[in-house]
Amino acid sequence: MRTTSLRVAGASAALAGLMAVAAPAMASVIFDPATGTGFVGKGDVQLVFSWNNKVLQDNAFAVDFRVNSVSETTWTCTKIVVQGNAETREIVQQHSTTSTAQGLVTTVARENSKGKDGAVTGFYLTGYEGAPVLGTDGPAPGSCPADPSGFVYDGNAVTTESGGGLQVTRDGTNWYSIG
User: Is 18 buried (19+), middle (13-18) or exposed (0-12) by CB count in 10 A?
Assistant: First the structure.
């Protein structure tokens, strides 16, 4: 009976050890949006691009990061139309979408014991790079159809954040959310 208990305990320990080896490493992203600094672990980049360690080592030079934000602003403009004795209001809803992107200075983090050719362990984000790039789709917030249309801004613009965050690329064109 004692032998059986030890075999079960030994098998359980071996299974737990196997599961620990088979489980993926915990990925890590630490990012301070106020300064543009932080760290992205190699596992996060590997997950996004479906890369194994060898592919990551070979392509780490091409990995780049940016911060992106997307907001949408909506508002209304009203035009009062008098027809005979009746007054009607014609309301037009306007909206615009604004995207902001700013690059991050990135340094490849390597295992120090191997020197400059050590295995990639992640990426250091050391601050913002250049000025933010803004893009707007739609009219300026608070504007109404061109004069002499008679539309007046109702003073009710509402802006909502609808996406963005830390993003990664390997080609400078296709960006993926990370972290």
Answer: exposed
Q: Which of 133, 127, 129 is nearest to 35 (CA)?
A: 127
Assess contact for 104 and 127: CB atoms under 8 A: yes
Report the C-alpha gap between 24 and 43 in whole angstroms.
8
CA distances from 38 to 32, 35, 47, 170, 176 (A): 6, 9, 19, 19, 18
Element of type H or E holding 106: strand 86-110
Average pLDDT of the segment spanning 7-22: 35
pLDDT single digits (tens) 69-96: 999 999 999 988 887 788 787 888 888 9
Question: β-strand 86-110 against 176-177: which pairing, if any?
Answer: unpaired
Do 155 and 141 touch, CB atoms closer than 8 A? Answer: no
- Triad 66, 69, 35: Cα angle to 5°: 55
Three-state DSSP at 4 gives: helix
8 Å CB contact between 38 and 65: no
Average pLDDT over residues 21-39: 74
